[in-house]
Amino acid sequence: MTARWSSRVLAANVATRNGFSAVKRYVSQEAYQNLLMSTPKPGVALITLNRPKSYNAMSSAFMAEINSAFQSVEKDKSIGAMVITGNEKAFIAGADIKEMKDLTFSNAYGEDFIEPWSLQVSQIKKPIIVAVNGYALGGGCELAMMADIIYCSAGATFGQPEIKLGIIPGAGGSQRLTKVIGKSRAMELILTGKNFSGREAFDWGLAARVFETPQQCVDGAVDTAALIASYSRIAVKACKEVVNKSQDLGIREGVEFERRVFHGLFGSKDQKIGMKAFAEKQTPKWEHQ
Ligand code: CO8
């Protein structure tokens, strides 16, 4: 497994391997064991989780690959936004239980199990859209909630079933889910381990959009990523930063932070390009500076 990848066209038929067919794929030059990398539209990286036999359960090697892929996309100047998806059966069915079952307290605590992984994901600065089809359970639901935008199909299955294994959510599930859907609903789901559907995820405000089919979900996520990638990367980065700050700050400090970043953007080339283009009825040609 290597971290580097490029958008060179190697094959366009990868799509059928993971159950999706309409999105044209341009796969990476250097392959991961359990990930398919492609650039279906300019500026968009599509990371397809591809460990189908275990429903994309997250083993430590798989998590290392996901981190590595995120880091390469983050560094790739040609990419403005990324989409993460799985297959029709599973986005991710959670941490790999078979690998985790013999973990001891001293190993988990002493070696900070999960911590570096979940911290690294939340430090990615490019927008991440997840296209959730099938199961998004435990760590899978948590990874989806670490992303910036959740799209799902109506039949997707979300859940935090850790209680059934004698543990609790370990990568932010109890915090992020509660913030979005409210204490009573989150408490019910986490205490019972019951799943909820993609339709419910949308109705409760967890998902931004819900689609009838998995294919529509992936296509919708790629289209949105392409739109985001068509804007100034400087402005996109700042948008993500200020929205994320709202999760940590009160409204007064948050608005002050937003204003500072807003002021700062008048020092960017893209602000001049964007406003000049508007005034002259032209399309802006962003320089991402
Ligand atoms: N770990 C390991 N293997 C898994 C997992 C998993 N989480 N989920 C499914 N598999 C494997 C099954 O063992 C099976 O393998 P095999 O064919 O070798 O027996 C294969 O995938 C297919 O699974 P099933 O036969 O069970 O398929 P079903 O369609 O009957 O059921 C389910 C699918 C409902 C997804 C079921 O497999 C299931 O309940 N899986 C476990 C879900 C779960 O409990 N997830 C939470 C795990 S704990 C967790 O995530 C803690 C989070 C800590 C933070 C992690 C951050 C990364």
TrEMBL record:
<dbReference type="InterPro" id="IPR001753">
    <property type="entry name" value="Enoyl-CoA_hydra/iso"/>
</dbReference>
<keyword id="KW-0456">Lyase</keyword>
<dbReference type="InterPro" id="IPR029045">
    <property type="entry name" value="ClpP/crotonase-like_dom_sf"/>
</dbReference>
<dbReference type="InterPro" id="IPR014748">
    <property type="entry name" value="Enoyl-CoA_hydra_C"/>
</dbReference>
<comment type="similarity">
    <text>Belongs to the enoyl-CoA hydratase/isomerase family.</text>
</comment>
<dbReference type="GO" id="GO:0005739">
    <property type="term" value="C:mitochondrion"/>
</dbReference>
<dbReference type="GO" id="GO:0006635">
    <property type="term" value="P:fatty acid beta-oxidation"/>
</dbReference>
<protein>
    <recommendedName>
        <fullName>Probable enoyl-CoA hydratase, mitochondrial</fullName>
        <ecNumber>4.2.1.17</ecNumber>
    </recommendedName>
</protein>
<keyword id="KW-0276">Fatty acid metabolism</keyword>
<dbReference type="Pfam" id="PF00378">
    <property type="entry name" value="ECH_1"/>
</dbReference>
<dbReference type="GO" id="GO:0004300">
    <property type="term" value="F:enoyl-CoA hydratase activity"/>
</dbReference>
<keyword id="KW-0443">Lipid metabolism</keyword>
